[in-house]
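Dear support,

Our group has been running a series of protein-ligand predictions, and this particular one with zinc ion is the one our PI (initials K.S.) wants archived with full inputs and outputs. We had some confusion internally about which version of the output was final, so please treat the block below as the authoritative record. The input we submitted was:
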Amino acid sequence: MEVNIPRKVRLRVAERIRLGLCLVCDSKAVKRQLCQCHYDQYINAVKCLPSKKAKLHFERRAREAGDVLGAYELREYKGTNRFAKYAKGVSE
Ligand SMILES: [Zn+2]
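Confirmed final output from the archive:
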């Protein structure tokens, strides 16, 4: 799924992750970088959609707006080791 998240949004999302806060309000983030209340709202909104395609479209729009994190996106934000790239393909 191609998601084009603007730099400005990425910076805001990274800051919320650093602080451990929900992307929508100032409560503690529990899932997908949302607090329990906003995560429930997100899930309820997704449930109402008629097809998998509509769900993917919805998620893409929400991610591009920085209102939710992708399922594995937190790993990408947190697992950013600047030097990991140098270790790739290096043998003894
Ligand atoms: Zn919230």
